[in-house]
Amino acid sequence: MTKGRVAAFAAALRRAGFDVVLPFSTAAYEAARPEGFDPLPRFGRPDALGVLVANTRRLWPRLLDALARDAALAAAEHPLDRYTEQAVHAAAGRLDPLRRQVRFAHDAGPRRVAMVAAAVATGRAARAPTGLAVHDAYGPWWALRAVVVVDAPPVPTVRPEAAPPCADCPAPCRAPAEALAARWTAAGAADGRAFVRRHFADLVAARDACPVGRAHRYTNDQIRYHYLHDRRLLVQSAGRP
Ligand code: B12
Ligand code: SF4
After folding, report:
1. 3-class SS of residue 94
2. Ligand nearest, relative to CA of residue 225
3. Is the beta carbon of 109 within 6 A of some atom in ligand 1?
4. 163 lines ligand 2 (CB under 6 A)
5. 129 lines ligand 1 (CB under 6 A)
6. Ligand 1 centroid, distance to 108 Cα (angstroms)
7. I need a surface site. Which of 3, 17, 20, 83 has the fewest CB within 10 A?
8. Which secondary-structure segment (H or E) carries 189?
């Protein structure tokens, strides 16, 4: 049964620290898909089951633990991306014998997925003025790691009783987001990563402006790693020399 297999897949991911696993319809993604991104596969179906794999701050201790145990992982150029690939592929075995395709958020090639659009398609998140996906419980404090498309019909999207985030909000994030967007435009065809390093504090402040999910804010080390991608910090946090 598809439902049982997806539940086993989600349970395996949770054990690895990917604690937000949400179904969506590939047709709903299609409606939100921005230009420049290819459609998701559908296995010849009019609509297929997509599963968004994401994490909150709970991933961090699991990642550090894995790095402490696995020297090859700690030596990888992008340890978090490598850890994600290993965990998602291992968990996807629980979907057997269903056919599936896995897409990672860090894949910049032709198979790249607009992850914010996938998050919106789950019905549990809104696209915020900051451009980020804001979850109804975790706010902006979650990261979107992968999408798995399964050769099965989509399950109905579960909508919580609460109104979607951003709907009735006075948007304290808007002013800092607009100030950053103006800087981004002024910077022209800037190197995105250099922009993030330069405006690190202001980008974090725009995220901090959101009242939703504040209890789920990342730790300062986790924030620094996500914005600055300094693998030395990650390896030191894991207690490696
Ligand atoms: C490219 C990219 C960037 C580029 C954007 C460059 C550009 N030309 O627009 C740069 C390097 C600047 C960037 C920065 C950040 N990103 Co980014 N990024 C992506 C990536 C790989 C693709 C996004 C994309 O092009 N979408 C298509 C366009 C059409 O989408 P969009 O909704 O119109 O706008 C996006 C960007 O244009 C950008 N953007 C929109 N307005 C503004 C304004 C400013 C000031 C900046 C800097 C960026 C920005 O933010 C949107 C989301 O990235 C995704 C992963 C993925 N595969 O989706 C992660 C992703 C969207 N980013 C993410 C994050 C967290 C960030 C940062 C907060 C921290 C970080 N890790 O660097 C910063 C700040 C972003 C912000 N809005 O505050 C997360 C969002 C999680 C969430 N909860 O929504 C994602 C999903 C990665 C992940 N693994 O979780 N990012
Ligand atoms: S501050 Fe309000 S509008 Fe901005 S992301 Fe949070 S809920 Fe959405």
Report:
1. helix
2. 1
3. no
4. no
5. no
6. 12
7. 3
8. none
**Is the separation of the CB atoms in 66 and 107 below 8 Å?**
no
Amino acid in the structure at residue 217:
R
Which token pair is 63? 């990642």
Atom 5 in ligand 2: which residue has the minimum CA distance? 128
DSSP 57: T
Q: How far apart are CA 108 and CA 112, in angstroms?
A: 5
Domain ranges in the chain?
2-155
- Residue 176 · residue 202 · CB < 8 Å: yes
Give how far the C-alpha of residue 188 lies from the chain's centroid of Cα atoms, to the nearest Å: 26
Ligand 1 midpoint to CA 117 (Å): 11
118's tokens: 């996938």
pLDDT in tens, the chain (241 residues): 788 999 999 999 999 999 999 999 999 999 989 999 999 999 999 999 999 999 999 999 999 999 999 999 999 989 999 999 999 999 999 999 999 999 999 999 999 999 999 999 999 999 999 999 999 999 999 999 999 999 999 987 666 556 678 988 999 999 999 999 999 999 887 789 999 999 999 999 999 999 999 999 999 989 999 998 887 778 777 776 6
CA of 130 to the centre of ligand 1 (A): 9
Ligand 2 centroid, distance to 199 Cα (angstroms): 20
Among residues 24, 38, 62, the alpha carbon closest in space to that of 112 is found at 38
